[in-house]
Amino acid sequence: MSLLLPYEKMWDMPLGGTSDEKQVPHWAGNLIWGFLAFVFKICFRYRVDNRESLRGFKDKTGVVVIGNHTSFLDVAFMYLAGRPSQWVRFLGRENLFGNAHGLVGQVLSRVGAFPIKRDAADRTAIKRAARMLKNNEIVGIMPEGTRRGKSDRAPELHSGAAFIAKMGHAPILPMTVRNAENVKRKGERFHFPKITIEYGDPVLVGDFDFLPKEDRLDGCTWYAMRECFALSLNVPRDEVDMVALFPGGKDFTAVFAEHPVPRHTTAEVVADIEAKAAAKAAKAAKAAEPSAEHEAKLADEVRA
Length: 304
What we know:
This is 1-acyl-sn-glycerol-3-phosphate acyltransferase. By secondary structure, this protein is α/β, with parallel strands linked by helices.
């Protein structure tokens, strides 16, 4: 019975996408989505802007959705924004899935989350995420790791999202959950502001090949996160002060001012993917032609 399915097994099962393998049972995820959508709609009157940027990738390619992390509710809103027609697979810190949090691990696994080790290169999680992308699934990541303001540590960017996108041959889609930071400020009671979830335009890892090899993933992450903050602050990307947001981190402002990164729409990215797939199929068909001709010649010789 799917009710008794060990949640560890669900980490390697598809959820959405185009894989023919047995999927994570949808019933629990649908119940959780319905409950959260109902409660959050009443409490936060949330809306989703530019959702077509995500919808356009459905069944065409995997995509890594990233966002700036200002609230403990960011992940929930990122999940809700994809439903009902798309599932977002989240990377969650490993201790949420341990024995001490068995119920939490079961719930998270059924909505598509899977664990990743903090402060370590978790190859298992990276391979899982890349496989999901190759099956045209969505992987959600917060490159800041810990939400902003949770600790006294200076915020920093982690390039895992860009690395996973590269491994899975997938675009990165920036998004933001605007106003989520006002739900619960330190030392204050809960508030229920109106929330807006907004998607930007896709970012391609390959567009950063002009950078030195050691800077490509960091530069891609920096650029994509600047898009997230531009959406969050509702300002042009050039007005986002990444040095102030990430003091001590690498700064690519001058580099990208001198070498502008190409802009893409979801429709353009999908059209390019389909064109490459068609060209690959045509090449394979052409390569098979001599073999077919040879078989026909042999058949003629046999008949003779």
